[in-house]
Amino acid sequence: MRFDIITIFPDIFDSYLSESLFKRARTNKIIDVHVHNLRDYSPDKKHHKVDDRPFGGGPGMVLQIEPIYEAVSQITRHVSRNKKTRVILFSTRGKKLDAKVARRLSKYDRLILICGRYEGVDERVARFVADEELSIGDYVLSGGELPALVLMEAVSRYKPGFLGKFASLEDERGSFPAYTRPPVFSPKRGVKWTVPKVLQSGNHAKIATWRQRK
């Protein structure tokens, strides 16, 4: 699966994509990630300007449609027709990203992620360029870079091999309290924080019932 990220801050992604699961998945060619600097697609070849003042007035600047359209056009120019591609714009007005959405998106061969900045993106990007708008929560962030990372991990977890040989317990059985050694931890004298006895019992039927109840 390939991810193409369009952003004005491409270096933001370097450390996260070069560690842990993402590093292994990229090395093993389970996923492929390409980060594109939006300024490279600016019609302004001197200053590489990609934003302007909003029509109607108001604070801040808005990302222009021209460089975003050009970026998506060039990225998709050589994509074969049998490759399923989806263009996503991150927006506070977008549909909430959840497990159902992530699973649906994992069926695509290629996702193009448009990261907004400043006071937003020219609305024509949402109307005519992106296939859908997504949000990761009911709050405002400085840009779409963090949502892009969240989406990539949520989607990649559904790709075989991304998690290694073993699936996540939360993915397989749902979220429940987890404990590990030591069975008793005393942060100070007279205080004991203990692991539930059922988890130490070795009775897998009782453990399954306890987890289901939790």
Helix fraction by DSSP (H/I, runs of at least 4): 25-40%
Count structural domains. 2
CATH homologous superfamily assignment of the largest domain:
SPOUT methyltransferase, trefoil knot domain
Structural class of the secondary elements?
Answer: alpha/beta
Main β sheet profile: 5 strands, parallel
Mean pLDDT: 93
Would you write up a description of this structure?
It is built from 8 helices and 9 strands. By secondary structure, it is α/β, with parallel strands linked by helices. It folds into 2 domains: 155 residues, Alpha/beta knot, CATH 3.40.1280; 38 residues. A hairpin with a 7-residue loop joins strand 8 and strand 9. Helix 3 runs parallel beside helix 5 and helix 4 packs across helix 6. The protein starts with a strand and ends with a helix.
Short description:
The chain is of the alpha/beta class and 214 residues long. It contains 8 helices and 9 strands.
Question: Which tags fit this structure?
Answer:
214 residues; alpha/beta; Alpha/beta knot; 2 domains; two-stranded antiparallel sheet; 8 helices; 9 strands; 19% strand
